[in-house]
Structure formats: C-alpha cells, structure tokens
Amino acid sequence: MLVRSGRPQKYMQCYPADSHSVHWLGAERCTNSQSPQSSSRTSVDSNHADLARRFLDHQHIGQTADAEIFQSNAGRLGMDPFTDAEMSQWRSERERLLQQYSTDFKRDYGWAIPLFGRSPNFRELEELASLKHLRGYYRWASHEVHSGSRGLDLNIFERGDGAHYRLTGRTDEGFAEPGTMALVSLNQTLNSLIGSGSDGDFSPRDLLGCMAIQVLLNECDDAFVAGDAVVTEAHERHAMRTGGRCSNRVILLADGFRSRAESIAGRISRAARR
Which of 25, 37, 65, 274 is the most exposed place for a label (fewest CB within 10 A)? Predict the structure, then answer.
C-alpha cells in the first residue's frame, strides 16, 4: 500500500510500505482485461442476471427496518410516528419480497445470497470484488467515523511544542490518503462501468480513455503528496518560531494545494462523463 516519506508517522504505523505506486492502491489496470476483478464481474454478470434487481429490491428491507426502529422510539423523541397505513404498506412489501426470494433476504446483504449460497458479510463481498487489499484503508476510515478507542487515538495530533491536541475543527493535515482513495474508488467504478457490457474486454477507445484517466489519477496523487509534504515542513518551521501554534499562512498554504488536487479531480470527473 502507499506510504510516502512525507506522511505523518501516526498514519505510517497503520499500513505496510510495499509499494509507491497508485496502481497498488487498487486502481484497476485497464491494460489487463483478464484481471481477477474482470473475471469475477463477468462470472457474476452471466450467472446472476437478476442481481441488480435483488440489490434494488433490498432497499425496501432496509426501509422497513429503519421505520420499525423509528416507530418504537418516536414517542421518546417527541416526534409523530408513522401512520398505521404507512407501516402496513412497508411491512406488506417486505413480506412480498421475502416470499419472492427467501426469508434470509431480510439479512444485511441478503441480496447477495445467490453469490455465496448464504447471506455473506461485508468482508466476503470485498474479497469477491478483488478489493481485499484495501481493507486496511476501510478500517482506517471506519476508525475516523466511529467513536472507538482507535478513532480517539487517531484524533490526537502533536505540535512543535510537544503538546498533544485533539482535532475538533478544520485541519490542514491528513488529506493525502483519503483524497487519493476517493479518486481510486471513482476510477474503479468507471472501469467496471465501461467493461460491464463488454464481456470483460475493453475497446481500444475505452482502453485509451482509462489510461488517460490513470495519468490524471497519478497527477492528483502527486499533488496530494506534495501538499502534504509542504504543509508538514511549514508546520515544523512555524513551530520553531512560535512554539507550535498554527498560523493562518499554513492553513492558506494547505488550501492552495487542496485546490490544485480538487482541480485535477474535477478533470477526472469531467473525463468520466464524456
């Protein structure tokens, strides 16, 4: 996974440094139409033609489950509950779907039962999509979102005066990996979309487009890495002068590199829509 020398040490502890290429972050190599991801997708498309319909139908399972939870807590929340007619409609639709598919369809990933012969978990879906190698980044993002002890630890920053601070507002650090990973996900989705109707083979035009977008993706990663390094250096210089207090100049410097990365990301997005 990607680890650059300019990354804060706390993040480097999370991931092994076995490559310095964005490709290894999971960006699908368009030149290899017989990649595991392509093969898996082709197999899924040909053997489970109703998978998309099952996925869309499953939203009614989640909707009814959410409604049931809200209904049981509406009084305590001081909010009006759903009407009996609304609840009856949603429950009837859920029962219809359970009869159409199976009672296990109500499970979290019940729509994917045909792929495994049982209800899978998220890790198994991740492996089927050939994205197992990105689990470390998934866990990192989960730590940042949920209130676990590891998330609390990742929320602590050390400044030049040796003091530790908890991040409670805007920051100029930590954008490189999340920004790059968001673009990698966009690139993977685009590649899968392009190849979904081509039996796993890319046309020369599609192949050229994917390669061009990969170049933009690499440029964006370089912009994020350069910005991260410059901000870190600015913090170190500023800490030597002020004892670690952050300045508006450092924040403006980070905003400039963030704008550069956003500009490249916008070019990728526009290219994907053409």
Answer: 274
Contact 82, 67 (CB under 8 A): yes
Cα dist from 109 to 4, 115, 118, 252, whole Å? 36, 11, 9, 44
CB atoms within 10 A of CB 71: 14
Cα-Cα-Cα-Cα dihedral of 42, 43, 46, 50, to 10°?
A: -100
CA 53 from centre of chain: 23
> Taking the alpha carbons of 269, 223, 182, 42 in that order, is the dihedral positive or negative?
positive
Query: CA-CA-CA-CA torsion for 258, 26, 54, 115, nearest 10 degrees?
Result: -160
Cα gap 223→268, rounded to integer Å: 14
Looking up tokens 């498309």 gives 45
Listed residue (164, 168, 176) closest to 230, CA to CA? 176
Q: What angle do CA 215, 189, 257 make, to 5 degrees?
A: 45
- Partner residues linked to 165 by β-bridges: 157
How far, rounded to the nearest angstrom, does the alpha carbon of residue 141 sit from its chain's CA centroid? Answer: 8
Tens digit of pLDDT at every position of the chain (274 positions): 333 333 333 333 333 333 333 333 333 333 333 343 444 444 555 577 889 899 999 999 999 999 999 999 999 999 999 999 999 999 999 999 999 999 999 999 999 999 999 999 999 999 998 889 888 888 888 887 887 889 888 888 776 566 777 777 777 777 788 888 888 888 888 887 777 665 656 678 888 888 888 888 888 888 888 888 888 777 777 666 665 555 454 455 555 656 666 676 666 666 656 6
E runs forming strands in the chain: 156-158, 164-166
Structure-token pair, residue 66: 């959410």
Give the tokens for residue 251: 């924040």
